[in-house]
Write a structure and sequence with these properties.
mainly alpha
């Protein structure tokens, strides 16, 4: 996994939704690893990280409402999201076996595919593949692409064209 400064630099400059997606993945990671309650992690990110500098890292300016929607939506819908993600993984690779950061990426994207009808599936896929590239240099972005493509076809079958579209 890349160092903490790298993901901030990898986010598309000036795109507040891209920055919100990255921050949501980081917040979900923190909640999973440290057990930080949702209210605390939302307040921390909104007060000290989104658009701020912390410990020498300049966090991109993010859309706080979009950030909050992703994090809250994942927490609220995790019991529905996880089985859907699990079904798209290769046999023998349960979601619990997947890296914590990858789980946060997949859950965030699954929430968007399920709940954010204003965002086309190719945009969701492209954005979260980019988030995966910010954290991983190996095959993980391809895994994210494949899982999200399968999820998009299942969750929004009419609107699930090929992945890797431009940001909208």
């Amino acid at each position: 996994m890349a160092d903490e400064a790298s993901p901030q630099k990898a986010v598309k400059s000036g795109n507040r939704r891209s920055a919100a997606r990255l921050a949501a993945v980081q917040a979900l990671y923190q909640m999973d690893i440290a057990g930080t309650p949702i209210e605390e992690v939302l307040a921390e990110f909104e007060t000290f990280r989104l658009g701020h500098e912390l410990d020498g890292i300049k966090y991109r300016d993010a859309d706080p409402a979009f950030f909050r929607d992703i994090v809250s939506g994942v927490v609220r819908s995790q019991l529905e999201l996880d089985p859907a993600i699990h079904e798209t993984l290769r046999e023998g690779w349960p979601l619990a076996r997947i890296d914590v950061t990858l789980r946060a990426i997949l859950r965030s994207a699954a929430h968007e595919l399920r709940s954010r009808k204003d965002v086309p599936p190719p945009v969701v896929i492209s954005e979260y593949v980019d988030v995966a590239k910010a954290f991983f240099a190996g095959d993980e972005p391809r895994l994210v692409n494949g899982v999200l493509d399968a999820l998009a076809r299942k969750i929004r079958p009419a609107g699930a064209p090929a992945p890797r579209a431009a940001e909208g």
